[in-house]
Design a protein that fits this description.
By secondary structure, the chain is α/β, with parallel strands linked by helices. The chain has helices spanning 15-26, 33-43, 46-56, 63-74, 77-82, 93-102, 115-125, 132-155, 168-184, and strands at residues 3-8, 29-32, 83-87, 107-112, 159-163. The chain has one domain (3-180): P-loop containing nucleotide triphosphate hydrolases (Rossmann fold), CATH 3.40.50.300. The protein is built from nine helices and five strands.
Length: 186
C-alpha cells in the first residue's frame, strides 16, 4: 500500500532529515511546498503564473492558489503509484479540509520539538534569515496557523505525535514505529 502522509513540525524540528528517511523507508514521493511552488511558477500554467506573482512580491499564497498547486502535483502518476509525504502543506485548517476533500490522507505526523530547542537549533545553523526576530515571527505564525491544523487532524483521528528530540536515527525509529502501528491498524 502506498503511504499518504502529512508531516508537521516547527522550523528546525528536523523535518527535512526525517522526510529524507521516510521517503526512502516508505518509497513515497516527498513533496515539499517550496519545491512545488518553484516548479509551478516555472511551469507557465495559469496557476503557476498566479503563484509566481505572489512569490515575486514576498506574499503568502492564498489558500485557493496553494490548494490548486498541491492538487496539480498530487494528480501526477508517481503520486498515485507511490503515495506521498507532504512537507509544508497544509498550514491552515481550510487547506487541510481542502486536501482531505481531494485525496485520502492516511496519517498526519507531528514531529514535536519544544520551541526553545528549535530556536537554539535555528540560531546555531547560522543562516542569514535565521535572526532572532525572524525566528520569532516564524514560530508565532506556526503557533497561530499550523497548531490549529494539527489539532484538526487529531479531531479526525489521523494524527500521531512523535518526540523529535534525539539522534536522527532514534527519531526515525520512533516515527516508523508509530506510523506502522497506525497504518497497520487500518
Amino acid at each position: 500500500m502506498a503511504a499518504r502522509l502529512v508531516i508537521f513540525g516547527r522550523q528546525g524540528a528536523g523535518k527535512g532529515t526525517q522526510c529524507e528517511f521516510l521517503t526512502r523507508h516508505y518509497g513515497a514521493v516527498h513533496i515539499s511546498t517550496g519545491d512545488m511552488l518553484r516548479a509551478a511558477a516555472a511551469s507557465g500554467t495559469d496557476l503557476g503564473i498566479r503563484a509566481k506573482s505572489y512569490m515575486d512580491t514576498g506574499q503568502l499564497l492564498p489558500d485557493d492558489v496553494m490548494v490548486g498547486v498541491v492538487q496539480e502535483r498530487l494528480e501526477l502518476p508517481d503520486v498515485a503509484e507511490l503515495g506521498f509525504l507532504l512537507d509544508g502543506f497544509p498550514r491552515t485548517v481550510p487547506q487541510a479540509e481542502a486536501l482531505c476533500a481531494l485525496v485520502e490522507v492516511d496519517l498526519a505526523v507531528n514531529l514535536d520539538v519544544a520551541e526553545d530547542v528549535v530556536r537554539d537549533r535555528m540560531l546555531a545553523r547560522g543562516r542569514a534569515d535565521d535572526t532572532p526576530e525572524i525566528i520569532g515571527e516564524r514560530l508565532a505564525a506556526y503557533a497561530a496557523q499550523t497548531v490549529p491544523t494539527i489539532a484538526w487532524f487529531a479531531q479526525q483521528d489521523r494524527l500521531v505525535t512523535i518526540d523529535g528530540v534525539g539522534e536522527p536515527s532514534e527519531v526515525s525509529n520512533r516515527l516508523t514505529a508509530a506510523i506502522d502501528a497506525r497504518l497497520g491498524a487500518q
